[in-house]
């Protein structure tokens, strides 16, 4: 699985033509779940891959606009192949335009949740496929361009609640295209739709058994590290905890040293908790206390990307200094996941940088150790599954994710030790209350954000003028898309009440009700 782009496990399947979407690998991953191998091919490639029999082509979404002259086109071989095509978002716009349809920009923008209403009444071949789905369903959108009109050759088979053209099919050829993203978890029948396309339309035979990911990971680690030694960066988070357990299993405890950096931007009491839990796995652990150094490096910095880059570099500096002082480390291990890679534009055909994850975009050009990242092509829920298989406790596997740059990306603007303390206290109240009310597991991730906004309040008959705290809770499975956590208002009010009463410095609390997209989960 990890080598999907290096070695090809099977020689037939589906081609996913990549136009730089944030979700390209998610399409391939859904097909794996369905039981089919997908080969990802750069959208600008003039030839199909050699030695690969494809039963259909899926055109990914992408940041380009087909209304721009410079936008990437559909390579000839795709239509020439005569194979079924499924266009998604940009892929749909491209297909529609290829056949003479007209697209427009900025007329009907949709981000996040939308309702798809299917119309299967006009007898187009795709009707029978789509009639297996509910007539009305929730889908997830992320587009600014939309179809103004189509040529005769196409039928409109679905629109959103706002009337936007959301699904079209060629009247004769096996071409179908969707404005929404069936590959994201928030599109209700998305996986079913993909499955109908590859099985009913492409007639592809299932050829992919979900590999034993544990075995594949162990092999990958053994092969990559050979007889070397790993300095494994651990955070106490899900990914690095599962990774370090696997590395110890693959290489033996004496060839793996876990290094945990306390950068002073962790949650309250996090450092001691992590130390205890990682040591209980029987792993060698070194804790580096570096709060002062990180604060100093970040002093006066308020730009989000700059903060991320500084933190990424500081992390690596710490790892390299440690490796230098303690001879023999050949590899740096990280719990990097695919979403970290794609959002930092570390993979794919011109995907845009959304934010530089500290462990990818923050890496220096020259690193003195080789990287070993067993989960670089996996998603969070896949890693959780691996974790359970190797016997990591639920307490660790079910933790909410916590970003490497920590509170630095949750204190908007400049970071000071005072603000860190204020935010730690507010966050702890929120998280403790979620656990107390049995709501922690109802959301995928929850946290508090400190806004550099002061507002006026009245407490004990006195005027206050203090910071604003935003609470964020999201639903997700892989973090690529997110919904708003549906927490009871009464609960939110009680959290707000306790924060304002107990945390000196905050006199107002708001709840973030934005999905991803258009927002991201973290505020920076
Ligand atoms: N404080 C830290 N000390 C050392 N390494 C860290 C620290 N924070 C993050 N890392 C490294 O960066 C990687 C990416 O961080 P990320 O937060 O995505 O993963 P995680 O912390 O392992 O899991 P989770 O996403 O559940 O928080 C980690 O897997 C780990 O290798
Ligand atoms: O280790 C990390 N290093 C980072 O730099 C980073 N930035 C975001 N995140 C986490 O990734 C998920 C998606 O977050 P966004 O929607 O904010 O991009 C969410 O779970 C975020 O908490 C990070 N994790
Ligand atoms: N997600 C997408 O594929 C977006 C396509 C195109 N850039 C638009 O905004 O409509
Ligand atoms: Mg983390």
TrEMBL record:
Question: At which positions is ATP bound?
Answer: 235-241
Which keywords describe this protein according to UniProt?
ATP-binding, Glutamine amidotransferase, GMP biosynthesis, Ligase, Nucleotide-binding, Purine biosynthesis
Under Enzyme Commission nomenclature, its number is: 6.3.5.2
Q: Can you tell me which residues form the catalytic site? A: 89 (nucleophile), 181, 183
The protein's GO terms of the molecular function aspect are: ATP binding; GMP synthase activity
The GMPS ATP-PPase domain is annotated at: 208-399
For this protein, the record's PROSITE patterns field holds:
GATASE_TYPE_1 (PS51273), GMPS_ATP_PPASE (PS51553)
Pfam entry (one): NAD_synthase
Report the pathway entry: Purine metabolism; GMP biosynthesis; GMP from XMP (L-Gln route): step 1/1
GO cellular component terms attached to this protein's record? cytosol
Q: Which reaction is recorded as catalysed by this protein?
A: XMP + L-glutamine + ATP + H2O = GMP + L-glutamate + AMP + diphosphate + 2 H(+)
What class does this enzyme belong to in the EC scheme? Answer: ligase
The free-text function statement in the UniProt record for this protein reads: Catalyzes the synthesis of GMP from XMP.
Q: Which PANTHER family match?
A: GMP SYNTHASE [GLUTAMINE-HYDROLYZING], GMP SYNTHASE-RELATED
Listed under subunit, the entry gives: Homodimer.
Q: Spell out the protein name for this chain.
A: GMP synthase [glutamine-hydrolyzing]
Give the organism the record lists.
Pseudobacteriovorax antillogorgiicola
